[in-house]
Amino acid sequence: MILDAFDRMMESAARRVAQRSSRRSVLARLGTALVGGAVLPMLPVDRTGRMKMAHAEAFAKTAQTTDPTACNYWRYCSSDGYLCSCCGGTYNQCPPGSHASPTSWIGTCINPDDNTAYLIAYQDCCGKDSCGQCNCLGTEGEMPTYRPELNNDIVWCFGAPSMVYHCSSAVVIGKA
Prior knowledge:
Blueprint: H1 2-20, H2 23-39, H3 48-60, E1 80-82, E2 99-100, E3 105-111, E4 116-126, E5 135-137, E6 165-175
Antiparallel strand pairs: 1-5, 2-4, 3-4, 4-6
Main location: periplasm
EC number: 1.4.9.1
Transmembrane segments: 26-43
């Protein structure tokens, strides 16, 4: 008795679908579902967070916390350019006569003293000729130019009084 009611209900549903759709539309929808299912694994997946942490951990193995004029100072894992600590400023302040750019690129660095990851804003100091001292090239977590917030090859003097690059500072934003 229950099976008869179920059969009648399924037959009724099948007849309604058959009345409202054609074979071609059913085949078209089935084809779309199959192609869409096959394309789904090819969609891009953003895995940069893991990549940045892996790079930060690699830099952290050789990083130190005592000499801010050395390229392996822990804050410089993604720094690219002349260090302000060698140019009359500090690791987080521009030298006199230069201005901190209001824009910056970011990186994630691990402090080896407390083994904590920190977000670092790398600000270019602008307005004076290039310092020419302590040139460091850190590429940890760097992304291509189409991801400018993670690219350190761009001169980040946008919005500063002058677009002339002097040096780069590393300001801790907070814990990552």
